[in-house]
Amino acid sequence: MSDFEILNFIKSIEQETGIDIRLKSRKRNYVYSRAVFFDILKKKNPNMTLVKMGSFVNMHHTSVIHWVNSKTNLDMYDDFYDIEKAIKSIKIEKDANTLIFCNPTTYLNGQN
Length: 112
Hints:
The protein is an all-alpha fold.
């Protein structure tokens, strides 16, 4: 994924879930969304440095390590599954003429 695609992906996450993962918040929905974002980013860009991954959401590389490692522990929560499903439904288009778009979901913003 290029930097442009990643920034559009972040905007798509915000449109899909109503959560801006760049904000420093420890609310559950923000934490879950960031964990899914890092997981997807790591899978799509296995050679990307942790520093660069963190730079997209204003975090240090150590925070990225924490979220990548803790994602497996979050899988057991139902509300995490809802956010993960919403974010993974976002299609990332590689065509230069097509921007990333969001699929409508039934995810309710503001649940804790």
